Amino acid sequence: MSRTEKDRNSDSIRGGFPGLSRQIDLSRRNPNDAPPWSLDTKFRVVGTDVPRLDGMAKATGVAVYPSDFRPKGLLYAAILRSPIPKGKVAELDTSKADAAPGVMAVAVATGKGRQIRYVGQEIVAVAAETKALAEDALARIQLVLDADGDFVADPIVDARKNLPAVDPLPQSLQEAGARGEKEVELAMAFETQVQMHHPLEPHGITAMFHRDGSLEVWASTQGTFMMQRSLAQAFRLPSRRVHVLTPVMGGGFGSKLQAGIEARLCAELAMEAGRPVHCFVDRRGQALAMGNRPSSLHWIRAKANSGGEIVDWEAQSYGFPGFAGSGRVAYPTFYRGVRRPRHRDIRGNTGAARAFRAPGHPQGFFAAESMVDELACRLGIDPLEFRLKNVDPVHHMQLKMGAEAFGWKQRFNKKPGTPDKASSMLRGAGMACTRWGGMGGARARVLCRIHQDGTVEVRNGAQDIGTGTRTVLAVVTAETLGVDVKRIQAHIGDSQDPAGPSSGGSTTTPTLAPAIRHAAWLAGQELLGRVAEQKRIERKELSLEGGKILKGGKPFLSFSQACALIGPEPIEAMGQRYRNWRGFSGGVAGCQFAEVEVDPETGLVQVRRILAVQDCGTVIDKKTAESQVIGAIIQGLSYALFEERLVDAKLGRVLGTDLEHYRIAGSLEMPEIIPILNKGCNGHNNTGAAGIGEPPTIPTSAAIANAVRNAIGARVHRLPLTPDRVLEVLDRVHGGKQ
Amino acid sequence: MKAFEYARPQNLSQALEQGGTFKAGGVDLLSRMKRGTLSVKKLVDISALQDLRFAPVLKKGELWIGAGLPLARLLEAGPLLPQGIRQAAAGTATPQIRNQASLVGNLLQEKRCLYLLDPEISCLGNGGKGCPARDGHHAELAILEPSPCLAIQASNLAPILCALDARLFEFQGKDNLRSLRAFYQDWRKQGERPKLPLTHSIRIPAASLRGGSAHHEVRVKQSFDWAIATAAAHLVLDGDRVARASLWLGSVSDIPYQAKKVEQALQGKAPTDFKKALALLDSDFELHSPQQDWKRKMALLCAEKALRKSYDNAKEQR
Questions:
Q1: Which residue has the higher pLDDT, B174 or B35?
Q2: What topology is assigned to A45-64+441-576 in CATH?
């Protein structure tokens, strides 16, 4: 009996990691589901390096992004935004814009009498023959605003003043170091900045109403079906009359989950003009209105005993999401002793926060992991040893694995604050852990067709925000049927295909993979049925293994030979996403190690190396999974060192609204990045796959901050770790001698 | 971006007949047009004019460099290119921008300030009143000879070319050899960039080719960023002592700043005295607030590094 057949018949599988596994009870599994993969499954394709199926098309510019799509008769939209942070629309007259050359439609977003809550709020959209004509027409709109001077653009300034007391800052290296005390109690404050959402492809859609009244949109979205539902609702159409297409898209990171106002305005303009309209937000609009990771403020009091155990933890946090959205934060509560903070959101008159790659986590983990690290430093215990004493078994295993691969012992600076003799740089190493859910499980269906010519078609309507959805479809199908990936034609990003999830919470792969496997498995079973029928043999004599049809366990037909028996009507199977059962763990775990070099003359931090150990259950495609880890680290590094939205509190305006002046890490800022996938099988669905898009961006800033602490001998409490802040701390603890 | 006329003359005479705004690399110009802080009726693209793109060459004892030479090609020049120019060009932006950006385009880039660059903010720099940066974010703005508008000239080639007393050679006009130093002075006096006819080349006088030069800058990001501070030095030595010193700073004022007191103090001194001389520069800073303290430190650091490196370079040159 084959491995999979045996798994199917047994009531448990082995889940977890090679060195840390247990039997997973399958009694809650749906009996109609495909047999589950386990830690013992020997894969052919899954877990190998499969290049992204659409990689070449994307890299060579062949792929048509929603913002590239140019149907015949296309009009272009431009949006007038509020120049004031708070007030009311007193007068609004769009007649002159309506009459302007080339203008075909005008749509109002914020009408007379309505409230203005931030600079950048959408007021009117205009569609015209060219983008320039649309922009010219905006200038003709007569807008009178009733400005309210009583606004708060940067509420963190006041919140800072109201924090509970913290310990005085150390004035020397000696003060910042371990003082040989038996137990340590600290009270510290931490702060994180606003990180702007700047996906390479801006937010927007191209919309057109067909003659039959149905709506077709090419959308840069993280949720084709969410977009379909919102537009259907807005235009009182049944969902099936809204067709959303997202064959590829240029990044979302959480900010493209909702159908934004720009999408509704676009469809409205298209309806009025009776022509297709292209409405994509410009870079400035992106900076002002398309969301951000909100800033946060933390006060933490914690205590650790001489044994290196965290024995007390109390925290208060604040989030500053702008006029709407959530600023909540998450702490690493898998550390024994670390508790969630009391939290409060304080709103202000700037663009609203949106979900941003692991919402709330990088903020909270920076604060809490800094505190954990500081406890270790003050006790004089190696931060690795300290963490090992306080974490769960999975993190324990990963920390040891990572420390070994990173060379923690050699890289951790035993004399913080002392320059390297050869380079005169200050070197240090730091670490932090991560945890995330990402088990998936939303409803999804996948269609699998096997054709007479031996090709396999697999379809789901969900999009790919960059994690490689198309490739996941192909890999899971190829593995299940035992055929080559090249045989598979994967189709995604079309709301006329079977329903799939929005890409949020790192759930796309864990939601889709089980449905793909189910569809492919059903199709394979049906193929065997057809073969039995055609060859007039008993179905139960046949099995499908390694891409071959076996009869009585012996090779009988190749996959192509079997497909040739299908006839002109393809085999069609609809796979389902059954509910998760209790797997090895309810989430994924990981840890990161950073090595930095700090220039004592300038305070500039250069990250030299980051090593990540990351679990995502079953690794479907090693190449795209590693690419997620690398990308998450790059974004985390950029957050740690550079990105910071500047707001002028008096004007209530965001400054630096283009990519020329908003600092994002570039090629020369890149360290050596080593992703280590902690391969396992979570065993909570038939593939055991979990999410990986978000978890690896969570600990990067904390690991870098802890490495800077190890390099310079004292802590910088605020992100980003800009050179002026680093130099200020250096000068303080070295008495200005650096 | 607003619609505009576009011409791309293939030779000099065609170019000289055209009226309009010249675009060489377009790095600064196009982003201003996109941002909406500049609208242009007619754009005359001079990037096809090979006459303006010649590599550094010695003529009549002077060093001539094509005004339209892309910075990447400037970096390919042999040892006749002063070290300071090479260092300044190498640090500019990114390889892609260095392929596109022209030498004179780098010198003519508009002043920088996050407020000034926002088309919706009215301030002194764009014809309005007051400087909102003074009550807001000014950590990266002027710290030496600050004008009422705190915007800075962030060209990283300007300080070294001023230090080497470079001239702009123009095609038209009677007095067609213009000192770069005077050009920036005029910019300050007029409150806006002086109109320039088509520029042929940058010319560095023979006297500046003696001795050693160096450029040093500090930027927050190493790829694609403007300098927080830049310093360029040119030293001519007499034995181990400084016979002539030139020290210019960039990104610290509305135009490149000449550290005259330091230059005078170094006259006849050995390099052990750099720190002492630089104390004179320190006393000239006019910080608007402590926000600018890091910038002040970096300006001093750049000045010291540029002096040391140019001293070493001068010794090598002998």
A1: B35
A2: Aldehyde Oxidoreductase; domain 4 (3.30.365)
In CATH terms, the fold of domain B53-317 is Enolase-like; domain 1 (3.30.390)
In A536-581, where does DSSP find H-type helix?
559-564
Kindly report the nearest CA distance between residue A350 and chain B, in angstroms.
16
Cα dihedral A102, A105, A107, A113 in deg (nearest 10)? 70
Residues A629-632: contacts with CB under 8 Å, at least 24 apart: A629/A673, A629/A675, A629/A677, A629/A692, A629/A696, A630/A673, A630/A675, A631/A466, A632/A357, A632/A693, A632/A694, A632/A695, A632/A696, A632/A697, A632/A700
The pLDDT, as a whole number, for residue A736 is 59
Q: Would you list the domain boundaries of chain B? A: 1-50, 53-317
Residue in B31, B297, B298 closest to A660 by CB = B31
| pLDDT higher than 80, residue B174 | no
How close does chain A come to B53, measured CA to CA in Å?
A: 26
Radius of gyration of the CA atoms of chain B, in A: 19
- State the DSSP H helix or E strand holding residue A115, giving kind and residue range, or none if neither: strand A115-116
Structural domain A73-153, CATH architecture: Alpha-Beta Complex (3.90)
Structural domain boundaries in chain A:
45-64+441-576, 73-153, 168-196+292-438+585-733
Across B33-41, average pLDDT: 90
- The CATH number of the domain covering residues in B1-50: 3.30.43
What pLDDT, on the 0 to 100 scale, is given for residue A1?
40
Residues of B in contact with A723 (CB under 8 A): 218, 220, 294
Separation of alpha carbons A709 and A377, rounded Å:
9
Contacts of A407 (CB under 8 A, 6+ apart): none
A676: enclosing H helix or E strand: strand A672-677
A723–B118 C-beta distance less than 8 A? no
Which of A283, A284, A608 is the best residue to mutate to test the B interface, defined by the most B CB atoms within 10 Å of its own CB?
A: A284
Cβ separation of A136 and B2 shorter than 8 Å?
yes
**Of A136, A669, A727, which is closest to B223 when you measure between CB atoms?**
A669
Give the C-alpha separation, A236 to A56, whole Å: 40
* Minimum distance, in Å, between the CA of residue B115 and any CA atom of chain A: 7
Neighboring chain A residues of B3 at a CB cutoff of 8 Å? 130, 132
Q: Return the CATH architecture of domain A168-196+292-438+585-733.
A: 2-Layer Sandwich (3.30)
Q: Which of A123, A604, A737 to mutate to test the interface with B (most CBs of B within 10 A)?
A: A604
**What's residue A182's pLDDT?**
84
CA distance A297 to A309: 25
Could you tell me the mean pLDDT of each successive run of 10 residues in chain A, 738 residues long?
A: 50 95 94 96 97 96 96 98 98 98 98 98 98 95 98 95 95 89 94 97 98 97 97 96 98 94 97 98 96 98 96 98 97 97 98 98 98 96 97 98 98 95 96 96 96 98 96 98 97 98 96 98 97 96 95 96 95 97 95 98 98 97 98 98 97 94 95 97 96 97 98 98 98 76
pLDDT, position A535 = 96
- Of the partner residues A658, A660, A722, the one whose CB lies closest to the CB of residue B220: A722
Amino acid at A714: A
Matching residue, tokens 């060459």:
B57
Q: Which site among B30, B223, B287, B304 would you substitute to test the A interface, given the most A Cβ atoms closer than 10 Å to its Cβ?
A: B223
* A251: amino acid identity, one letter: G
Q: Given an 8 Å threshold on Cβ–Cβ distance, is B225 in contact with A663?
A: yes
Is the pLDDT at B135 greater than 80? The verdict is yes
Q: Does the beta carbon of B301 lie under 8 angstroms from any beta carbon of chain A?
A: yes
Q: Do domains A45-64+441-576 and A73-153 have the same CATH topology?
A: no
B114 touches chain A (CB under 8 A): yes
Cα angle: B216, vertex B221, B227; to 5 degrees: 40
